[in-house]
Design goal:
- The complex is a heterotrimer of chains A (183), B (192) and C (504).
- The N and C termini of chain A lie far apart (68 Å).
- Among the domains of chain A are: 63 residues, Electron transport complex subunit B, putative Fe-S cluster (3-methyladenine DNA Glycosylase II, Chain A, domain 3); 59 residues, Alpha-Beta Plaits, CATH 3.30.70.
- Chain A has 6 helices and 4 strands, in the order ααααβαββαβ.
- Chain A is mainly α and 183 residues long.
- Chain B is globular.
- Chain B is built from 8 helices and no strands.
- Chain C is α/β, with parallel strands linked by helices and 504 residues long.
- Among the domains of chain C are: 213 residues, Rossmann fold (3-Layer(aba) Sandwich), CATH 3.40.50; 131 residues, Orthogonal Bundle (Fumarate Reductase Iron-sulfur Protein, Chain B, domain 2).
- The chains are: A mainly alpha (183), B mainly alpha (192), C alpha/beta (504).
Chain lengths: 183, 192, 504
């Protein structure tokens, strides 16, 4: 009886000591994964994901508490890049990707108050006091920060119009195509 | 030498841990979705099994048998295996963060992987020598890795195939696993 | 390898398909001219690259050949008036594109006179510097007329920079139904040969190889006669095999050189131009005429009198079909060839520079078979001219695994349609590939957008910091000024007190 207690105690403490030493030796400084994930993100800290800025979301994705599809401005492209980085598979069909969206200004109700220009993370809104503002299409990430700031509700998010250059052939309807042979 | 080679072959194929002894099914179904993570899991498990076999042999022959403590076998083996897995986890986290992420919960779960404890207990039961134990453990682990890779490869292809909705996902994987197990039964006919 | 196999191998390449070509009788009908339509629609983008920018105003009177829109950017081409008349609108019209989306275009009301504006013919193009030829070609809006519509002058400069030795002239015209190139070689062989010699001069090529499929004996004969005086222009009949008219396949058939993936033809020392493009270069130089007209094959089961039509650009498909007459209401309209052409939403779209044909199919020709399951017969892999595995690529694309498809060489696919043509299960393979390529480029665009946004965010935070710094500096300066002013005022008061004290 005594022997059993003694031997297990000795064994346990020896292993514990070894693991303690190993933990010292293999200590990971910070999480390199978080930094790598953050590097992939848009970095506009727009907050659409529900986290306070891109670094927080990166940490959440690295710890697995947020899905890789959490970043709306990043869209499908970012979700894929993250999935590849983390070595996980995602169902892209499930990604609610309404395509890129951009902010637009209704020119007849814009009063030129400049409030929206101050919150734009990418400086995509052009405007001076008492002048109608406009959005630079190429620079807008569709984060929506400006929408609530507008006192006259002149700002709205709209899908980026499809042009000939952006049009994509639809995927063939998944009917009997490529199905396993029947009978 | 021939004896060891035969032992290696028979543990890896004829008495495959996963498909013949049905041990370690948890990572087999859980991790073997892509070749990369299957290989990572296989290598980690190989390391753990081989190391655990060596450690448990020493434990068995230098502690448990001399002091007549054979009834503590399972308890002490689990202790040793858990420590080994902890060690492997630290190493993987340090050296391959993405693999660590991909293996997820299955990495610490190697502790409870019955293949590890099973192989260790089997070697103890058969009262093998040290070298034999090592070969037995290594061979079993090789068999485990082989099956993981085969299954992952098949499932990668299966992901592209059109599976009836009722069978999509886990059900068809089980069918696949059963077919693989049937195939491995063929090795039972090998006569050395 | 046996002797017989060697013969057969050289006669018929191992890739591609051999569809029923259906070029005749349309190819044998003499060339007709389309009566001038009342309205002509000139899209601003009829080429690869940046859209042209309008330089005319609504209501303005223009001459035939006058520039309507100028090139914009390095890779672009101007658009010219196809006839004389008035500009009636600059706005959106339906594009000749399967999407049916709108496109900016200049609408021209013809005055019926068809009067040319000023033209500057060059008497001896060979005395000009190559640069000058490229400039005139670019100003004439000449683009690749085989269907690729890449600005010809850009290719000239590329060829000269990479020291291309051989010009390959593409007279393959491997698509069934089409005979526009055949027609131009038969009827204007001299123009084609002169044009290709000008192109050779422009790129500094030593020899030209004209590849013509063997199913066009009349064209081969006419070109032989036209090229006879010039020792460095060789007419080379090539086996009739689709897609022989594709750059990489024709280069391999004529020179034995294989163009590596992700490389341009010029990098193996050859440059490919279409026969019609050469004829357009001839017109641009010798006659000073910009590209405003082209030969269009009108063919298909629904057409009463199929044949080749000399039509102004901007004429609508409906105008051409009205001219040739229709037997039945077409079940499907295609711009270009049946294999790689574009499905048209309706006939009210204009003929553009790259439109080599208009096909109006009757119900039989347009029949669509329902796609069946893949039986893994492997016919698609045998027919693929690029040596890809279409079935594997399609499987990956169906499962949304575009990276997997790219791994099987999706980016090398030339969308020739051989695989879908031979597929016994009628799987729309090319549509899978087109979809995947579009999706990949959309992802690439999104990635670039993200990167650009990142840069902008960094610049903004730099700006905010700079502004805060400047604000602080200004505040400090103002405070110092205020303090100085205060000190001065105090000193003045003191001085005043000192001065005023003795007075009382």
């Amino acid at each position: 009886m005594l022997m059993a207690i003694l031997s297990l105690t000795v064994l346990g403490s020896l292993l514990g000591l070894g693991l303690g030493i190993a933990a010292r030796k293999f200590k990971v400084e910070g999480d390199p994964l978080v930094a790598e994930i953050e590097a992939l993100m848009p970095g506009s800290n727009c907050g659409q994901c529900g986290f306070a800025g891109c670094p927080r979301l990166a940490a959440a994705i690295a710890s697995g508490s947020a899905p890789v599809t959490a970043c709306p401005p990043g869209g499908k492209a970012l979700a894929l890049a993250l999935a590849r980085k983390l070595g996980i598979s995602i169902d892209l069909a499930a990604v609610a990707d309404q395509g890129p969206r951009i902010a637009t200004v209704a020119e007849d109700i814009c009063i030129g108050c400049c409030r929206c220009t101050k919150v734009c993370p990418t400086d995509a809104i052009l405007g001076a006091a008492k002048q109608i503002h406009n959005v630079i299409r190429e620079a807008c990430t569709g984060c929506g920060n400006c929408i609530d700031r507008c006192p006259t509700e002149a700002m709205a998010l709209q899908p980026l119009p499809v042009t000939l250059q952006h049009w994509i052939w639809p995927k063939p309807l998944d009917g009997a195509a490529l199905a396993p042979a029947r009978g | 030498m021939t004896a060891y080679l035969l032992l290696l072959l028979s543990t890896a194929l004829v008495n495959n841990v996963v498909l013949v002894k049905f041990l370690g099914l948890c990572p087999f179904m859980g991790v073997a979705k892509s070749m990369d993570s299957a290989l990572g899991m296989g290598l980690a498990t190989t390391f753990v099994i081989t190391l655990a076999c060596a450690a448990t042999w020493m434990l068995e022959h230098w502690l448990l048998l001399p002091f007549d403590l054979a009834y503590l076998r399972i308890l002490s083996f689990i202790l040793v295996i858990a420590a080994t897995v902890q060690f492997v986890e630290m190493v993987v986290k340090k050296s391959a963060p993405t693999l660590y992420q991909a293996l997820g919960i299955y990495l610490p779960l190697i502790t409870t992987n019955c293949a590890v404890l099973g192989v260790a207990l089997l070697t103890a039961q058969e009262s093998m020598g040290f070298a034999q134990t090592l070969v037995y453990g290594f061979g079993s682990a090789l068999g485990f890795t082989l099956v993981m890779l085969m299954f992952a490869g098949l499932r990668e292809r299966l992901a592209l195939a059109r599976v009836p909705a009722a069978f999509a996902g886990a059900p068809v994987s089980f069918i696949l696993a059963s077919l693989l197990a049937l195939a491995f039964m063929g090795f039972a006919g090998l006569n050395f | 390898m046996g002797f017989i196999e060697r013969i057969f191998r050289s006669a018929a390449p191992a890739w591609g398909v051999h569809p029923d070509d259906r070029k005749r009788p349309a190819a044998d009908v003499p060339l007709r001219s389309l009566p001038l339509p009342e309205r002509l629609f000139m899209p601003l983008q009829q080429h690869v690259g940046g859209a042209a920018r309008p330089v005319v105003l609504v209501g303005q009177r223009v001459w035939k050949g006058q520039m309507l829109a100028e090139a914009q950017g390095n890779i672009s081409a101007p658009v010219h008036a196809p006839t004389s008349g008035h500009i009636v609108a600059i706005g959106e019209i339906t594009a000749p594109h399967p999407s049916g989306l709108a496109q900016l275009a200049i609408t021209l009301a013809s005055d019926g006179a068809d009067e040319w504006g000023e033209r500057h013919p060059v008497a001896d193009p060979f005395s000009l510097a190559p640069d000058e030829i490229a400039r005139i070609t670019a100003a004439a809006g000449v683009v690749g007329l085989g269907g690729a519509t890449f600005p010809a002058a850009v290719k000239f400069n590329l060829g000269r920079r990479l020291k291309v030795g051989t010009l390959i002239v593409n007279g393959g015209e491997c698509e069934p139904y089409l005979s526009a190139d055949d027609c131009i070689m038969r009827q204007r062989a001299a123009e084609v040969v002169d044009g290709l010699r000008i192109v050779m001069h422009a790129i500094g090529a030593r020899e030209a190889l004209v590849g013509i499929e063997q199913n066009k004996p009349e064209a081969i004969a006419a070109m032989h006669i036209a090229a006879a005086p010039f020792g460095n222009v060789h007419i080379r009949p090539v086996p009739t095999r689709y897609p022989m008219g594709s750059d990489k396949q024709l280069i391999q058939a004529l020179t034995g050189k294989e163009v590596p993936a992700d490389a341009r033809a010029a990098e193996v020392g050859v440059l490919v131009h279409n026969v019609s493009t050469c004829a357009a270069v001839h017109r641009a130089l010798r006659l000073g005429e910009p590209l405003v007209e082209r030969i269009v094959t009108v063919n298909g089961g629904a057409v009463s009198a199929p044949g080749n039509i000399f039509a102004p650009l901007g004429a609508r498909v409906a105008d051409l079909l009205a001219f040739t007459g229709l037997k039945v209401e077409p079940s499907r309209l295609i711009l270009g060839g049946p294999m790689m052409g574009m499905l048209l939403p309706h006939a009210r779209v204009p003929i553009v520079k790259g439109a080599s044909g208009v096909l109006a199919f009757d119900a039989d020709e347009a029949a669509v078979h329902e796609a069946g399951p893949c039986i893994r017969c492997g016919l698609c892999t045998q027919s693929c001219p690029m040596g890809l595995l279409p079935l594997e690529m399609a499987r990956h694309i169906r499962a949304e695994d575009l990276d997997g498809a790219t791994g099987f060489g999706l980016s090398d696919c030339i969308a020739c349609g051989c695989c879908a043509y031979v597929c016994p299960s009628h799987i729309p393979l090319v549509q899978y590939f087109s979809h995947a390529k579009g999706e990949l480029s959309a992802r690439e665009r999104a990635r670039l957008r993200n990167e650009a946004a990142r840069r902008l965010v960094e610049q903004r935070s730099a700006r905010l910091q700079r502004e805060a710094r400047e604000k602080a500096a200004n505040a400090a300066r103002r405070k110092a000024e205020r303090d100085a002013a205060k000190a001065r005022a105090a000193a003045a008061v003191e001085a005043a007190a000192k001065v005023s004290e003795p007075i009382p």
